[in-house]
Amino acid sequence: ENLDRSALIKKVLIEGIQQERFNFAIKKYLLQEISLERAAEIAKISLHELIAKITQLGIPSNLTIEDFKKLI
């Protein structure tokens, strides 16, 4: 990508914030403080995307039947 310096800094900051949001959501999910659906909301990604990411990371899911029905 051909970005100027300020655009590059902005891009890096946005990506960092998104990653921190994801990390926070996953931490709360693993501590069973929030649901998978709430983790997706905090991470500002879809439930489908969150499930795909945690699967790639090898994080076990505690999906309930209700959660599964929302995916269908």
TrEMBL record:
Pfam family, one: UPF0175
Protein name per UniProt: Uncharacterized protein
Upper lineage: unclassified sequences, metagenomes, ecological metagenomes
